């Protein structure tokens, strides 16, 4: 029988308690975003440490400072805040680099909408049904939890959810695109570029600003999505269905598209991309790429957690894939050359050449 006083058993019990209570982390993140704590601390870059009472006084006139401090302390343990203990008793907080990702920038963007988007009621209802994806992978937990409606259908019918989704995607896309545009040369020589699933057109706008030789950008998405897209110089918004056909171009760009579909659906999308490209044309897909072996690094955890999110919300057999799995998808749809460029820690740039 195991010695329950041993260091190994003590650590094991501690670890499972942390895992069982892990919901406290995303829900507390959700709380501090709703309370506007990151922007309050940032104060145009000063990031001056404030107590829970001082933060509360700035975000609203009434509230419980002790409960706010409890949230701040817990998130400090996850490196969202830095805790400053004054005179051995008073606690003040400032933002870490992680916390700064939640601060609204000059363009009105941050990762805060991404946090809120993940925790909407329709998505939260799905999580107690994760086991159903194992029992019956033909229907997503989201669909079972929301009266038979798919996530994409739900967004299309709910204006507020769709608006938050677009803002969340913009907040994530812009920093990633800045990294790509600084470290990737694959847009050289491209004159006509299609962004499949381009939403509001943020990615195309940034690509065209960096690469003025791209004379025409086509933002291709569902008709109800592009109908709300803003006017962008050099960009044409085109509504359509990527499973039926994709506009002709020198290169096709997509970000976080293949991940949310099954292997067969990915092949259908990539085949349409192949047919829309000239000889030598390229598909540039930015997707999460799983490591071959599992470890406990932040990167691996983030990628595997995202994989479960896809399985639960979008497609029970949609998934994050390894580099080899993506290569095989490309070969099966006609692409003859393939390379992976690791610039960002979450998204990898995948080039498929016709």
Describe the structure in your own words:
The protein is an alpha/beta fold and 354 residues long. It has two domains: 1-101, Arc Repressor Mutant, subunit A; 173-353, Vaccinia Virus protein VP39 (Rossmann fold, 3-Layer(aba) Sandwich). Helix content is 45%, strand content 16%. The chain contains 17 helices and eleven strands. The chain has helices at 7-20, 24-34, 37-42, 52-59, 65-76, 97-100, 112-118, 121-124, 132-135, 141-145, 151-157, 159-183, 202-210, 223-226, 263-276, 298-314, 323-332; strands at residues 50-51, 81-86, 90-95, 192-196, 216-221, 235-239, 251-255, 282-290, 321-322, 337-341, 347-353. The strands form two sheets. Strands 4, 5, 6, 7, 8, 9, 10 and 11 form an eight-stranded mixed sheet that branches. Helix 2 (24-34) packs across helix 5 (65-76), helix 7 (112-118) packs across helix 12 (159-183) and helix 12 packs parallel to helix 13 (202-210). It is globular. The model has no long low-confidence stretch (mean pLDDT 94). Keywords: Methyltransferase, S-adenosyl-L-methionine, Transferase. Residues 132-335 form the O-methyltransferase C-terminal domain. InterPro entries: COMT-like, COMT_C, COMT_dimerisation, SAM-dependent_MTases_sf, WH-like_DNA-bd_sf, WH_DNA-bd_sf. This is O-methyltransferase domain-containing protein. One of its GO terms (molecular function) is protein dimerization activity.
